[in-house]
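can u do me a favor
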């Protein structure tokens, strides 16, 4: 089965508490109306785990997670989105028009959806950071091989100190991220709250997702700009890490809130 997670709505975006999709109670069913944007696997999924408003109360306590089979009447895949990167994965915009699902499809308690989603985000963000490690390692390794083989001005490109030093520095960054990810994963497995470490790992992964492919691509010269090279794909695909699963700025907001440095509401 292919499943996907539906959090963001057109207009609400990274502001999870502000989503507008509603699930109205009707006997033993919910009747769901609204829309979701940027849904990975959206065109081929069997069901969606949907975050929607099931009540009127405060925005952090009025949401629930509901599993909706995609074949249910009223579910429309509005369009497959055309993306800069991650082109081997489909992303869709989905609408829900009076979609009726039984209440037993709800995950956990009604009104706890926001809390469950925040807990899920810690694993998703940690996974996001972990998934980058091998990709970056490979990008750096490929760049070492390419620049060793390519000669310019009578010597391999790699022999320029600016290149081999920079690649060593990037390797160091990857290992630092790996250590943080391993530490956070260990804490997660031990049942600890890893919000801070997972957020830091996701932030750092987002930063490196921009830095490493960009730095490496430069050393490939014109070849780096060609679709046939892996480094150009890495440049496009890695850009998502700083946005998906919560943008870097949202990560910084969480960290500042935990640090007590976020200005209070006036
Ligand atoms: C290819 C792709 C696949 C995705 N797949 C899924 C999926 O399967 N399921 C799912 O639920 N979501 C998915 N998403 C959504 C993703 O999580 C959101 O795009 C992300 O959380 C950012 O929200 P937004 O795009 O609405 O940006 P916005 O909220 O519109 O923010 C735009 C930019 O403003 C800045 N910004 C935002 N908030 C702040 C702030 N508080 N302070 C300072 N600056 C800020 C950031 O730079 C941010 O990038 C996917 C997105 C993409 C692009």
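np, heres the sequence
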């Amino acid at each position: 089965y292919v499943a996907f997670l539906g959090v963001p709505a057109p207009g609400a975006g990274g502001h999870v508490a502000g989503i507008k999709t509603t699930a109205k109670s009707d006997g033993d069913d919910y009747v769901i109306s609204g829309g979701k944007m940027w849904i990975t696997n959206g065109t081929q999924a069997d069901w969606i785990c949907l975050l929607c408003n099931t009540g009127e109360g405060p925005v952090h306590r009025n949401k629930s997670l509901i599993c909706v089979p995609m074949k249910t009447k009223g579910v429309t895949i509005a369009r497959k989105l055309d993306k800069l990167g991650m082109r081997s994965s489909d992303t869709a915009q989905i609408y829900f028009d009076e979609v009726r699902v039984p209440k037993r499809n709800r995950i956990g308690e009604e009104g706890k959806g926001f809390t469950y989603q925040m807990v899920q985000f810690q694993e998703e963000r940690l996974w996001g950071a972990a998934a980058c490690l091998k990709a970056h390692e490979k990008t750096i390794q490929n760049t070492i091989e390419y620049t060793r083989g390519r000669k310019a001005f009578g010597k391999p490109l790699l022999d320029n100190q600016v290149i081999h030093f920079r690649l060593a520095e990037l390797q160091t960054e990857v290992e630092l991220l790996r250590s943080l990810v391993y530490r956070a994963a260990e804490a997660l497995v031990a049942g600890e709250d890893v919000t801070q470490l997972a957020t830091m790992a996701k932030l750092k992964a987002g930063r490196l997702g921009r830095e490493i492919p960009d730095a490496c691509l430069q050393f490939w010269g014109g070849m780096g700009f060609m679709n046939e090279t892996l480094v150009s794909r890495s440049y496009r695909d890695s850009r998502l890490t700083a946005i998906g699963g919560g943008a870097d700025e949202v990560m910084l907001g969480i960290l500042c809130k935990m640090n007590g440095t976020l200005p209070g509401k006036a």
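The pocket of flavin-adenine dinucleotide is lined by residues 4-8, 13-14, 38-40, 83, 86, 91, 240, 243-247, 249-250, 253 (CB under 6 Å). hope that helps!!
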